[in-house]
Every structure is written in structure tokens, then in C-alpha cells.
């Protein structure tokens, strides 16, 4: 089974599942280079009541099947031992915002490589003074964003290994399965897009995954692209796949691949 490495995020992330823990975070990803020593993350309480948030580091390892495994303590590639947070707990009124500052204190003779930890925002439960005695369960909802520092960073070397059209087992609609590899040891970040040539002879985007990262701990990944609503594959021609950088990699073309359409 191919490994999957998807890091999906939005400019703002809205916790709509629970009205008691609504939170807006921007940005949802922080990337340091050797010249940068500090960064800021803004959080906004979008609920209708006062909320308290705890800000801590969390160590996560990308899993071959997608998602993360939470580690109990930092590892050699963790960023948290050389990073400082301020403040570490905040209480916000409805609509109020707060800036979290991240400072990097790099040790001497730091080995070349990429260091990453995840900034975890925990919404602490408010005290319910009107609650009656008895069993009470308080859920601590949380959301984390990756924070990356690169020592002697190099441009990620991404390669398209294979691509194929597969059928969704549930809705029977076609998907595009793309196998990617990265061998440089530094994570990439950008958008993977699929294009076809339409009847007018122009390139038309039919699928895209934005905010896609390939992390160093997993050497290969299989990414599935769903077609946009209303889009269909033509009966013939090629699907042109492009992995293009974003943020610090804006303007970088990580690679492309031409997939023939066969029915």
C-alpha cells in the first residue's frame, strides 16, 4: 500500500463542529529558514462567550496511511526544544484576537536537516456553575498547525513516479491516483493540479489539492485527486499533472506528468 502524505489547511480554520470551541487561526502553517528567528500566529475567538486556550507543543509523526501519530516526547528532528512560545495560555472575549509569538533559539553546530513540531491550541472547558451534581464529561477540543525550521535547507527534489485513473469504490466516479517521491530530506509545499485540453483547445483545470506537503519521514506518497463537481474526463487525450510550490516555494515547479486517458 502506497504511503499517503497530505497536509491540508486553509488560510483560516473554523471549528464549526462545536459552538463552545470556535477558533480562527492564521496562518495554519509556519515555515522558518536560517535567516528568520521569530514568527507570529493570530488566533480569534469566534464563539459568543469567553474562551480559554492553552498553547503547547505537540510532536507528531506522519503515518504511511495518512494522518499523524502523536509522540509522547520530542525526537531528534523536533523543533520544540529550540523554540519558545509567548503567551502559553490566553483568555479571549467573543471576537477578541491574540497574537502568539514563536522564537527560535538555534543551538550551535545544529545538524543539517528539517525540524518540525506542531503548535497545539487546546480549548479548555468553561466552568458550568449551574450544572447539577453527577457525571460530567468535559471535552478538550484542539487543533494543531505545523511549524518547520530548515537548517541549510535545500530545494525539495520531488518526482512523479506513476499516475493512473482509478474508480471510487463508493460512488464509482473516476479519481486520479498520483505516486510522488521526495529524496532531498526537506518537505515540499504547494498545490497538485490536473488539467485536460477542452473542446476549444484550451487547458481546463479539472482537479486540485492545495496545501500539499511531502514530509521527510515518508519517502513516497500516493495522493488521490477528486474531479471538481461537474467535471468529466474526456474520452481521449492526456491529463497534465503539475505540482507547483506555494508560500516560501511560490514560483517553484516541483514537477509535472502527462497521463494518457484510456477507456
Automatic annotation (TrEMBL):
The keyword Cell cycle does not apply. The keyword Signal applies. This is Fimbria/pilus periplasmic chaperone. Keywords: Signal. It comes from Pseudoalteromonas lipolytica. It holds the Pfam family PapD_N. SUPFAM superfamilies: PapD-like. Residues 1-21 form the signal peptide. It comes from the Bacteria.
